[in-house]
């Protein structure tokens, strides 16, 4: 399957592989580090890798861990799939995500024929589906390593096993309560970072496959979270995004339970940390204590992502969301009473099985009453293995698309109107990058998560600066740096 000529058994690493983590993985990293060094000398160039991330911010954070492990071993990151090691970190929330991966695999096969030493690994949510793994095992035999969401930390060991056996390695865990700390991670940005505070989900929304591929909820110890953030701040991070499938249920699995609101209070004490964001919040678990913490915070950003999914109580019950339209609107009212100018964003599914015109109008009613700053709108995508996939009264595609377009116009009109209200004011922005449309402009992100583009020098990237929002362009601003 490959032409690797170096015998890993001859690479000396003292003793047997440790049993405990993360020491076990560092053992395999040490073995592989010597192998990569020898292989690079043999080829006369460094070994390269690329991680392609499909899906959510949880996947993006996992990819940073994968990149950190490979860089520790000695691989050098590249931006092309003509690399020595290609990893696809997959998503399976919607069916087209799976289709995209299969399409890309055909392209990788052509590259591997040119470079027999090339290694290909597939991981992430899509790999937790038995039917997917079986299809890859039979139809894409050139893939080298397949692993899932629960054992991301094992990359070094899996790579070592692949090089030893010269056969496809499949290592899928159906679940775990294990959280492995203190492994390398390579951040995409030096000034902002995502931080996992928990893994998994216990909600079992009827349309969602996440609980089946990410497992049950398990929270990280607050001490580990605080330490990670402090280390990041010492390394230049000014903004962190706390990540979890449902951050509002943080702490329930800890030996000493701690609420998400209490965790935020501890994180806010970290000196040098300027901004705190988090997602995602499930409405059924958002407490009054969290609202109070957000209201009084000087660091939590003025933005809350609060997925509603539907405005119909009938559909919310079928979705297993565990709140009604009225309860959701009451929650929004409490949030806006405490923080009148907060930016609210949401997720909405159109075309869920059984959706009638009346149900859709209920959703439009919620959108008009809440007035979201923006919304991620989705056409319902049937996911095999979820209760909704076998529900009768699936909505016709043409009907769903027509409703989707009506919803999108409503959301865009409201969003443009809300964005317009800040025109002419001076706001603080975190400068994130050179604008990819116009290199004379920088792109910054406001506390409310809206982007502003303005002239400035690249040395400002990673800095918090004051910007006058000179012109509203619907969903973003053109601005001027305030000296």
Give me the secondary-structure topology.
Layout: H1 23-43, E1 48-53, H2 57-73, E2 76-77, E3 85-90, H3 95-114, E4 119-124, H4 130-139, E5 145-147, H5 155-165, E6 169-171, E7 192-196, E8 198-199, H6 210-214, E9 218-219, H7 222-234, E10 239-243, H8 260-268, E11 275-279, H9 288-296, E12 303-305, H10 313-318, H11 325-338, E13 343-350, H12 357-370, E14 374-379, H13 397-420, E15 426-434, E16 441-446, E17 451-455, E18 464-472, E19 476-481
Parallel strand pairs: 1-2, 1-3, 3-4, 4-5, 5-6, 7-10, 10-11, 12-13, 13-14, 17-19
Antiparallel strand pairs: 8-9, 15-16, 15-18, 16-17, 18-19
Helix pairs in contact: 1-2, 1-5, 8-9, 11-12, 12-13
In short:
With 483 residues, this protein is of the alpha/beta class.
């Amino acid at each position: 399957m490959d032409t690797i000529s170096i015998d890993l058994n001859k690479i000396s690493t003292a003793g047997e592989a440790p049993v405990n983590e993360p020491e076990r993985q560092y053992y395999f990293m040490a073995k592989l580090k010597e192998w990569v060094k020898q292989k690079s000398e043999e080829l006369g160039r460094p070994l390269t890798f690329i991680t392609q991330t499909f899906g959510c911010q949880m996947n993006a954070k996992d990819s940073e861990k994968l990149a950190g492990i490979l860089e520790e071993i000695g691989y050098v990151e590249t931006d092309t799939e003509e690399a020595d090691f290609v990893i696809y970190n997959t998503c399976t929330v919607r069916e087209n995500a799976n289709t995209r991966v299969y399409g890309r695999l055909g392209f990788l096969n052509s590259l591997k024929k040119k470079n027999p030493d090339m290694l290909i690994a597939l991981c992430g949510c899509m790999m937790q589906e038995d039917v997917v793994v079986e299809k890859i095992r039979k139809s894409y035999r050139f893939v080298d390593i397949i692993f899932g969401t629960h054992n991301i930390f094992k990359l070094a060991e899996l790579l070592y096993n692949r090089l030893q056996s010269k056969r496809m390695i499949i290592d899928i865990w159906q679940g775990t309560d294990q959280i492995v700390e203190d492994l390398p991670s390579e951040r995409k940005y030096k000034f902002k970072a995502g931080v996992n505070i928990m893994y998994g989900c216990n909600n079992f929304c009827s349309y969602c496959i996440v609980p089946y591929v990410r497992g049950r909820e398990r929270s990280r110890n607050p001490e580990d979270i605080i330490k990670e953030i402090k280390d990041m701040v010492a390394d230049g991070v000014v903004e962190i995004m706390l990540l979890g499938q449902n951050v509002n249920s943080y702490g329930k699995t800890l030996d000493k339970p701690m609420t998400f609101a209490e965790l935020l209070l501890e994180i806010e004490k970290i000196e040098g940390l300027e901004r705190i964001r988090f997602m995602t919040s499930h409405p059924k678990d958002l407490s009054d204590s969290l609202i109070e913490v957000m209201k009084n915070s000087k660091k939590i950003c003025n933005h809350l992502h609060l997925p509603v999914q539907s405005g119909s109580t009938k559909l919310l019950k079928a979705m297993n969301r565990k709140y009604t339209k009225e309860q959701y609107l009451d929650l929004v009212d409490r949030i806006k009473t405490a923080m009148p100018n907060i930016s609210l964003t949401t997720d909405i599914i159109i075309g869920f099985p059984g959706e009638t015109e009346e149900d859709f109008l209920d959703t439009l009613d919620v959108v008009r009453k809440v007035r979201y700053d923006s919304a991620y709108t989705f056409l319902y995508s049937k996911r095999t293995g979820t209760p909704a996939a076998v529900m009768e009264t699936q909505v016709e595609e043409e009907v769903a698309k027509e409703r989707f377009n009506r919803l999108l116009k409503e959301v865009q009109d409201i969003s443009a109107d809300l964005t317009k209200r800040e025109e002419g004011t001076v706001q603080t922005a975190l400068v994130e990058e050179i604008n990819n449309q116009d290199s004379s402009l920088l792109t910054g992100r406001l506390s409310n998560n809206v982007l502003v583009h303005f002239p400035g020098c690249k040395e400002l990237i990673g800095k918090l600066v004051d910007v006058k929002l000179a012109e509203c362009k619907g969903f973003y601003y053109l601005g001027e740096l305030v000296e």
